[in-house]
Every structure is written in C-alpha cells, then in structure tokens.
Design a protein that fits this description.
about 425 residues, alpha+beta, 4 domains, 6-stranded antiparallel β-sheet, 4-stranded antiparallel β-sheet, 13 helices, about 25% strand
C-alpha cells in the first residue's frame, strides 16, 4: 500500500522501481532477474540475451514526474523503448540470420572479475535445475587479452549494448572467433569523430564518443595513431581510454591522478590496471619506482571492490548453502612509514573461511585473539600454504582454509611478522 501511495502521490524509492520492473519482466518471461539498490541496477535474461540496466536516471526521472499517471508513462517508455527493444523476439538484431546482425557486432573490453560477477548473479537467481539447463546458452564467451582483461562480443543498438551469449551464436550458426573478427572490422569502421585529443601535457584521451573507446585496445595501430611512442594505457571507465608515454613520468602521474578522480566521481568502473603496448602486444605495465605507490593504490582499491562485490554475491546463495564457509573480507591499510596502501585479510582460528588473496594475512588465534600475527602473503604460503585449498570458479581467486597453523608453524609466522 505504501509503495502505491508513493508512486501516485509521493516520491518512489529505488526499491519501488525495482519491484515494479521485476514484476513486469517476469510477466514477459525474463529469467535470472537480480537487482541492486545502491546504485540501482537490474540484471536479467530474455530471449537468450543477458542484459543489465543501470537505473539511476530512471529513478531520478520517476521522482521528478508529477503523479502516478505521468510515472506510468515514463516507466513504460523506458521499459519498452530502452530496456526491451534490444532483446525483443521480433527485432532484427536477434534474427536467426547472422547476416542481419553482423554489422551490429562490437568487441567489448571487460575484466575477468566482471565476467565472474555476472556468472554468480545468474547462479544466485536460478534454481539448481534451471542453472543446469541455462548455463550453456547463457554463458558469455570471451577472448583473453592480458592479465585480468578479456574481450567479449556486444550487440549494438541505439539504446544499449547487449552481451552476446553462446545461445545467440548457436542460433546464428557462427563461431565466436568468426563473429569476433567481424566485430573488430566493425569497430575499425566506426567514425573517427575527434579521435585522439591531448587533454594535458603528456596525456591523451580517445574521443570517438561511441562508448567503445576501451575496445580500441584491440586495435594496436589505432593506439599508435595517438603519436605516443611507448604507449601505456588505462581504461578506468567503460567509455574512457587514456594513454601516456612509458618514459614520461609527469604524463604517467597525470594519468594515474585522473583515474583516481574518475573512480571517485563514477560508480561504473572498468579497470585501473595499466597496460603497455610493446610493438603490437599488450603487457602489464610496471610503474616507475617513484610512481609505484600511486598505481598500486588504484589496483588495491580495485581488488578490494571486486572482492566486496564477490562476497556480497556469495553470501546471497540459497538457504541450503547457508552452512558453507565464512566469506573473508579485504581491508586496506596505509602504514605511517610507507606511502603504499596495502590489503590484508584475516585467517581465523577454528573458522572455515574463503580467504581472499591479499598483500598481508593476519593470523588470529583463539589463545591471543587481540594479538594477530600479520605476515606477507608469500610467507603465509611458504609456512601454511599446505592448508590452503584453491576454490574453483571464483575470480578474484580465494583459498579455502579450515585448519589453523600448529604451534611450530605459528612460531615461524611470528619470526617473519610484517608489523
């Protein structure tokens, strides 16, 4: 009743909007629907396509609308015109004829953590039987690029871009590699618009204004067109591509500072892991020593956020899994005598735990719970690694630990404690 009153006469909440969307999507056959309130977003599968929509603007517009009737019109306009048009069964983009969709394919740059979150989202939303039936067709194939970066296929429409699932490729009768090559050709043929723009001394930004700027990492010749001899690239957001020269300390510092600022201002991040283009191959970039703390902080924050999102999804598992292991957290700390931000996790005594991979590990024993022994991850692996069991299917990775080091091993840990 309160939801109806807010919709008709007051200001609907994000939860109100999400409930209404879920009901409408279920009515038209959507499956695997999951929601998040802050920021408001929804994930679902319809006609074999995995879709997600970020709803901040919709919630804002519905709150501004005057009265229930105006909100109904705005809601229906968004649902039919923006969310459902790209995935309706009768639109040409989802035809069984590959020739009719080939020109709409684009490569999308994502991270393994992003792909893993989508997989967990879907698994949480489906029953075990449903998951077994839909896993193959809803799986999103991808091509590794370097490190945590991967490239997948997207289906471009004026309103949004849908991930291309394996079920769509099967329906079109085309392999992923063939479709991906076509997508690269399409990307290369997009209008240049402003191309590369120097936004500060030593710092360039891609300005194609088509939301596929990060995808240009897949076209090395386009990167070299910036005029930068030794390109180092960062893609903090899904529409932002930055490049500086590996030998330009000032330019690299500007790029890292801009990435930090963008992360503070936006919620839809891509990644702040820098890459260096060596001839035509991307490699992880090792920042100069003077800039290493700045770049490492960006990566530590990114890893922490990825682990937090993963923890939330793992804890949403169904009731029958409620007795599973505790999902450990990642904490960030900066010591007084160091500029570097470091991550740490806790290995508790007597608790079955999914331990994240961090810079430091705090061993908390029953005997001295307030005197945890903190050691570097490498030392933890060397002394207690035989208790660590890798967990399949998780990214970022975790180790399952359900045995605490014995007395001799605890003495070894104290001998190498980091703080």
């Amino acid at each position: 009743m309160r939801e109806w009153i807010r919709w008709q006469f007051g200001r609907p909440t994000a939860a109100d909007v999400l409930k209404r969307l879920v009901r409408r999507l279920e009515e038209i056959g959507a499956t695997g629907t999951t929601v998040n309130e802050d920021p408001p977003e929804i994930h679902f599968t319809l006609n074999g396509v995995q879709m997600h929509s970020h709803l901040t603007h919709l919630v804002r517009d519905l709150r501004r609308a005057k009265g229930g009737r105006a909100r109904d019109i705005e809601f229906d306009r968004y649902l039919e015109g923006t969310m459902l048009r790209p995935v309706g069964a009768d639109v040409p983009e989802l035809s069984e004829d590959y020739a009719s969709v080939r020109a709409r394919l684009v490569p999308l740059l994502r991270t393994r953590a992003d792909m893993a979150k989508s997989t967990l989202d879907l698994a949480n939303a489906l029953t075990q039987d449903e998951a077994a039936l839909t896993r193959a067709s809803n799986q999103t194939p991808f091509r590794p690029l370097v490190g945590d970066y991967v490239a997948m296929l997207g289906l471009d429409t004026p309103e949004s871009t849908a991930r291309v699932a394996q079920g769509m490729l099967d329906k079109w009768g085309v392999s992923f590699d063939t479709a991906f090559d076509d997508a690269l050709d399409n990307l290369r043929g997009l209008p240049e618009d402003l191309g590369w723009q120097q936004i500060a001394p030593g710092l360039w930004q891609g300005a194609w204004n088509d939301s596929y700027e990060p995808s240009r990492l897949l076209l090395p010749d386009v990167i070299y067109r910036s005029g930068v001899a030794h390109p180092v690239a960062m893609v903090p957001l899904r529409h932002v591509l930055l490049v500086a020269d590996a030998n330009d300390i000032a330019g690299l510092a500007l790029m890292a500072a801009m990435c930090k600022q963008l992360r503070q201002e936006h919620s839809r991040w891509l990644s702040c892991r820098p890459l260096q283009l060596v001839e035509r191959t991307w490699q992880p970039f090792e920042a100069p020593e003077s800039l290493r703390p700045m770049f490492q902080e960006l990566i530590s924050v990114e890893d922490s956020e990825d682990y937090s999102a993963q923890k939330r999804l793992l804890e949403q598992r169904r009731p029958q899994e409620a007795s599973g292991p505790f999902v450990g957290s990642v904490k960030l700390v900066q010591f007084k005598d160091s500029e570097r931000v470091m991550s740490y996790s806790v290995w508790p005594d007597g608790v079955d735990t999914l331990l994240p991979l961090t810079d430091l590990v705090a061993f908390a024993s029953h005997d001295k719970p307030d005197q945890a022994v903190i050691v570097a991850w490498a030392d933890a692996v060397r002394i207690a690694g035989h208790y660590m069991q890798p967990v399949d299917g998780l990214h970022p990775p975790r180790m399952r630990v359900n045995v605490f080091p014995n007395g001799d091993e605890q003495a070894q840990l104290r001998a190498v404690k980091a703080v």
